[in-house]
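fyi for ur records
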Amino acid sequence: MSTPAAASRTPLLSRRPEWAGRNYLLLTAAAFVTNLGTHGALIAAAFAVIQTGGDGGDVGLVAAARTLPLVLFLLIGGAVADRLPRHRVMVAANALNCVSQGAFAVLVLAGDPQLWQMMLLTALCGTGQAFFSPAAEGMLMSSVSGEQVSRAFALFRMAMHGAGIGGAALGGAMIAVMGPGWVLAVDAVAFAVAGALRAFLDVSHIAEREAGGGLLSDLREGWQEFVGRPWLWSIVAQFSIVVALVGAAESVYGPLVARDELGGARPWGLALAAFGVGTLSGAVLMMRWKPRRMLLVGTLGVFPFALPSAALAVPLDVVGLSAAMFVSGLAIEVFGVAWMTTLHQEIPEEKLSRVAAYDWFGSTAMLPLSTALAGPAESLFGRSQALWGSAVLIVVVTALVLLVPDVRNLTRRTKEIASGSATSVPVPAPLPSPAPGSASASLAAPAPASPTAPASLSAPASAENGAGTVR
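which gave:
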């Protein structure tokens, strides 16, 4: 005989979608927590440098210190994630991020942190991200199957970026009232909570990897998978430029424009929150829309990435800037969901992390250079000219990618995916994807990175999450 309590629980459980399993729910909850902390922390790091008397060059150096180890260790991280249980790699990376952000918070709260100290601690955080991102993308891909994979990815990104809305706005407000140190401390706690959630992931459904020829052999196999797909390497090449330009604009020029033209951290936090609202709206759209030519539609969605740089170049007031950020946020979700669904459809499960690593590596390779050179470029050309150049270049490289036949013609499958694809599950109508990182990423005001699209759009948010990945 069922009890009233059991009866009340049954409808709730029955309403849960079949694809929303235990791992998917844990991954979504953990991503929500980390993005809530990180979106504010990326703003806090920039203003911590500014409050110590740093200029645009110093802000760029700290941003570059985060992305350089991300680039250096990504390929190793991808190979490790395809050899070891992915959830253990994720938890270890979260622990490193927790410690580094906690130490950064202590230094800022204690007063007068040195530039080299901030660079060292952000470098540790970038190292953790290098191991985390490929493992997280592979884990997410293996947690869903069936016809609703696009909806699952869209809902995941909705939760991730929904946290970014509150995180960016709250972070900007906290910086204005309490200073950046407390925002960094919140981020450290968020990493600890997320790591605890990810420790409960179940990997029993993932077949044990056969003993291979070693790390270099794994990397070669991942490279062959990567270069053998023109749609994959061409979009990652595109995002190596897009992520670099967006990263410099949002992590270096954005805070400086906010300080000089908009009145400080709060307006910049509101603009990043508008970006988050855009990503949330885009995720809602992609839960219902399943375009047949996913990569074509997704690539068309990259053109609006140029809008924030153009808005900062004018510069527009906080309303205009927020509008530009909103549209670019919506566009990155169109691309991000298409990209993640394509990766799920086209890449074998046992190679997902290595392919994701090449995605993240290519997408973020130029980011350390672009952020480090943002200050000198401002001095040489002027801030407005540098931002206009970024906007134009984003449009040009995106137009070039549309010349690749596979990008225009790859379609969503309606039948069982062939043996060479990620998982043998049905996916509606033919089609072909970071999120920095992403092209997995996340333009997402951290990332981080999700645009993750090529893995890294998330420079606060865009330059680290790329096309479509997770934090």
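Residues 1-14, 415-471 have pLDDT under 50 and may be disordered. thats all i got for now
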